[in-house]
Write a structure and sequence with these properties.
Layout (H helix, E strand, L loop, with lengths): L2 E4 L12 E8 L3 E9 L9 E7 H4 L2 E8 L2 E11 L4 E7 L13 E2 L6 H4 L2 E9 L2 E18 L6 E10 L10 E4 L2 E9 L6 E6 L5 H9 L13
Parallel strand pairs: 1-10, 8-13
Antiparallel strand pairs: 2-3, 2-5, 3-4, 4-7, 5-6, 6-7, 9-10, 9-12, 10-11, 11-14, 12-13, 13-14
Length: 228
Amino acid sequence: MSGVACADDTDPGRVDAAVVSVVATGCGNDYARGTATIVDIGSATDNTVMVLTSAHTVAGADRIDITHDGVAYPGTIAAFDPNTDLAVIAVETRPSDAIAAVTPAALAGKGLSTAAAASRAATVVLYRDDIVDVRSVNIVRRVNITTENVYLDGDSRRPGYELRANIATGDSGAPVVIDGRVHAMLWSKSRRSDDRAWAVDVVRARTLIDTQINTGDLGEVDPTRCRP
């Protein structure tokens, strides 16, 4: 049974109830684990739950399990952007499934300006060992992250934020919340500083996954491709 562990008095609104675990298996029986969020996006219906997570966690997967309240549900990739590292997993549900009753987290409708992002308090909601862990973080600044795509074979420039936060492997995909809305998704910890991390701006970086969900077509993107 999953629970909520609050590290401080920060209120994440209702987002903490929508945070789940994602486990992807594939590419030679390798598996990856991350955090994900049930969100209100695109073609979500009474029979489908849409879950936002990091693309690098699910790349090459032939099985994806979304775990909520100790129960695992199979999912399929509905959207996948190897450049911004955003992915959406669709989970088909029955009325009796507990996950179907979860209120989706609201995505921010407008990104933070450079001034508004500077030294801004926020909350990150992690899923660790079947526990939803709510922690306070600080947004240091708005940035454009220059890195490689999820396959490490091309350059990527993704809008995001620098955070002052302590995160660990498996925290990728966790939502960064301000005023009860998801503004960003954890991407990576810093290799140089234990208290620095990076998050992808889900407002400015969502163009491709929105198009894929609305059209039902991934286009030229191949999410079954294995990462090196």
